[in-house]
Specification:
With about 200 residues, this protein is α+β, with helices and mostly antiparallel strands. Helix content is about 45%, strand content about 20%. The chain has 6 helices and 5 strands. It has helices at about 15-35, 55-60, 65-70, 80-90, 135-165, 170-185, and strands at about 40-45, 50-55, 95-100, 110-120, 125-135. The protein has a 5-stranded antiparallel β-sheet. Strand 3 (about 95-100) and strand 4 form a beta hairpin. Helix 5 packs antiparallel against helix 6 (about 170-185). The radius of gyration is 31 Å and the shape is rod-shaped. It starts with 14 loop residues before the first helix and ends in an 11-residue tail after the last helix.
Length: about 200
């Protein structure tokens, strides 16, 4: 016959753990909402450069579908500057890309700006990367228009100086050269001036 001396009952307070788990779930939900609804393309990739997750804005910028993008190895893209920016991030540097990107399927060219950074573990090991990309078509077009206007004004100033420094006996030659320069700038293959 066994003799019991007593019973030990242990209680473990779990209120703090439940509170922490609730906070963690809430934080994850906030981050998911930000990730999915941000107006710029956000994506993550592993150490081999394969896309592991992306948001809808990224899908739109790349002109593809999520199904085609998840698992895509970015190191195999034709755009070597973009590949280099991503490779830089996997060495611990911040990669940067800003130029026209040709979309994979539509072949449409989109002015694209991107920043790429590594994701590291607690001990500093690189575990992949994250990229943020945006289509900056409006600013790109605006910058191109400003550049075109500046180049056109510069050409007009140069032509004006040519005319001012030309002897009247050589004005026809200067005029023809000016007309040729203007035609080249405007990408016109022929320009004619008719006199009556």
């Amino acid at each position: 016959q066994e003799h019991r001396l007593g019973t030990i009952v242990a209680f473990h307070e779990t209120t703090d753990q439940v509170f922490l788990l609730d906070n963690l779930r809430e934080s994850e939900e906030k981050h998911r909402l930000i990730f999915e609804n941000t107006p710029v393309g956000v994506f993550q990739y592993d150490t081999a450069g394969r896309i592991t997750t992306c948001n809808n804005s990224f899908v739109k910028v790349f002109g593809s579908s999520r199904k085609q993008l998840i698992g895509l190895n970015l190191m195999n893209l034709a755009d070597k500057d973009l590949v280099q920016a991503i490779a830089d991030s996997l060495t611990g540097a911040v990669g940067f890309y800003e130029q026209e990107y040709e979309q994979m399927h539509s072949r449409k060219k989109v002015p694209l700006r991107g920043y790429f950074a590594s994701i590291t573990s607690k001990n500093g090991d690189i575990r992949g990367g994250v990229g943020i990309v945006e289509d900056f078509s409006e600013k790109y077009q605006s910058d191109r228009q400003i550049k075109y206007k500046e180049e056109f004004e510069s050409l007009l100033m140069a032509l004006e100086l040519d005319f001012l420094n030309t002897d009247i006996s050589d004005i026809e030659g200067t005029f023809n050269k000016g007309l040729m320069k203007m035609g080249m700038f405007c990408k016109v293959d022929r320009a004619y001036v008719f006199s009556f």
